Amino acid sequence: MQVSKKAAKVVEKVQRGHQPASRISEWSSAGECVAIHTRVLRFVGFLRGYGLAHALYRRGVLAITTLYLVQECVYAYKVRSNLDKLSRVMFLLLCHVTSLAKQLVFHFDSDAVKRLIDALDNSVFQNEDDAAMQLVNECTRRAWRVEVGYAGCAVLTCTLWLLFPIRDHAQGLHVEFPFASPESTDASPMFAAILLYSYYVTTLVGIANTTVDAFIATIIYQCQTQFRILRMEMEKLPDTARTISEARKEAYETALTQQLAQRLLHYRHITWMAESVQEIFGKAILVQFGIGGWILCMAAYKLVSLSVLSIEFASMALFISCILTELYLYCYFGTELSVESSNLAGSVYAMQWVGAPAQFRRSLLIVMECARRPLRPTASTLVPLSLDTFLKILKSSYTFYAVLRQTK
Question: Which of 29, 299, 309, 318 could form a disulfide with 91 if both were Cys (CB 3.0 to 4.6 A apart)?
């Protein structure tokens, strides 16, 4: 591509995976979209924080969530011949497996996650245009709404589950927890200890799991938003270059080439972020998609045996809503990113390039050819994050459920 030497160096650095180090003292408008997620993830011990105390806290959280998962596996093995009890533990066990997969990513790829978060503060995402700021602010507002609503639904579900053993214990009934625990739990001190332990781990996993999903989906959404901003900038690039040329009293062709180089840097940074999300969280998302159908199946199997007017039914309906939201977030924003990136070539063609220099027009041809290949987010390069995948998971889940009902 025929661009200035400065632009060529910029593009070359980005292509080599160079991560710009420019930072600002506070959250940028783009970085603000994940601020609530990072605070919650540090609070629950998933995201790396500051100091030795928080590092020990993270290890403790990992140990206790792993222990709880092992206890669920032991219980599932013991009740494997009882389908009702097995369904009671399996949807929670599988949900904890997906949460542990994501938790391990934050432990072993903490540096990569930090670079991804820091990249949102890069100056390439700073845009003072009113339309661009409106799009970025809308992304932030939606991220906050998703986090509060999604995590709040998980907390409400776990709180409702807390009420059931309390009710049974108050009525003098024996309470059997869905994980390996001491046989004699009827004594009040032992019952209270096991109940609080179960509620703490389940709620922690629920908050962390939903926040990780919202965090990943928000970054994908931010990539889509930046593509929309880039498209707007591309369409008015000649006018912007002309204004800068007149203000700085420099050659129009020079200003045009510099503006194109900046847009290319913006494009490379967006694609780097989208590819980084796939590289860092791809395997965890693949586990989520592979198990998601089974979780829905076991939860639905449990749901149909409950009274519609009972609190148990409401809690299971909330749980299923969380799982559906979890899968839908990835598929919806993945589809939106693919659609937005595929429209970039049309925006390049829509600019006023007729009166531009021949060298610039030749550069645009190469840009359009590259932009014809849209981003298609996938889970570990195997499963596309698309609405079509969401429908396939729902269909497979119903198939599993129908088989279970027949074998009852």
Answer: 299
**What angle is formed at CA 179 by the lines to CA 327 and CA 76, rounded to 5 degrees?**
75
Digit-coded pLDDT (tens) for 130-163: 888 888 888 999 999 999 999 999 999 999 888 8
72 dihedral zone (left: phi>0; alpha: psi -120 to 50; beta): alpha
Q: 387's torsion region: left (phi>0), alpha (psi -120 to 50) or beta?
A: alpha
Measuring CA to CA, how many Å separate 228 from each of 61, 134, 267, 311, 337?
A: 39, 11, 11, 44, 10
Residue 327 burial class via C-beta count within 10 angstroms: exposed 0-12, middle 13-18, buried 19 and up = buried
pTM above 0.85, yes or no: yes
What six digits make up the tokens of 87?
């369904």
Q: Count how many Cα atoms sit within 13 Å of the Cα of residue 170 in the half-sphere of its side chain.
A: 6
Eight-class DSSP state of 355: T
Backbone torsions φ then ψ of 74, nearest 5 degrees: -65, -45
The token pair at 312 is 């148990």
Distances (CA, A) of 154 to 91, 139, 151, 161: 14, 22, 5, 11
